[in-house]
Amino acid sequence: MSSSETSRAFTSVQRGRIAFPSLGHDIEGRVASVGAVVGSGLRTAPVYLTLEGPRTALRPGVYGRVEIQTANAAVTLPTSAVLIKDGMDPVVYVQQDPLTYQRRSVVIAQPVEGRVQVMSGLQPGDKVVVRGALLLDGSADQLL
Prior knowledge:
Blueprint: E1 6-8, E2 15-20, E3 25-34, E4 47-51, E5 65-69, E6 76-78, E7 83-84, E8 90-97, E9 100-105, E10 107-108, E11 115-120, E12 127-129, H1 133-136, E13 142-143
Antiparallel strand pairs: 1-12, 2-3, 2-5, 3-4, 6-11, 7-8, 7-13, 8-9, 10-11
């Protein structure tokens, strides 16, 4: 695989700030997880935050505005880079050296418009095979 057929992976810790007009102050937190189901209407997905700092009296039905801070963009790959084998965990192939590739399980979000976000399983600087991955694993059932 040439370098043009790989994609570098990187990670970031995502923090958030929630502004509640009714409380009069903001609450800091970090992203705990992102829901796997994307709504078809507005193409939205639930994001779950773990709140930090002193406990605040939040009530059900209170509206707030969330700002998620990211230093880097999310890791996304073309769906052609992700393989499904025996109905099990999705896998990608990571380049170890010019002639060696390692199979690695990943946790992914719901595919959107031909791309999929990788939630975990890749390290900063990993080169992922994005074209021809099915040729490396002939026993894979399907591409994502």
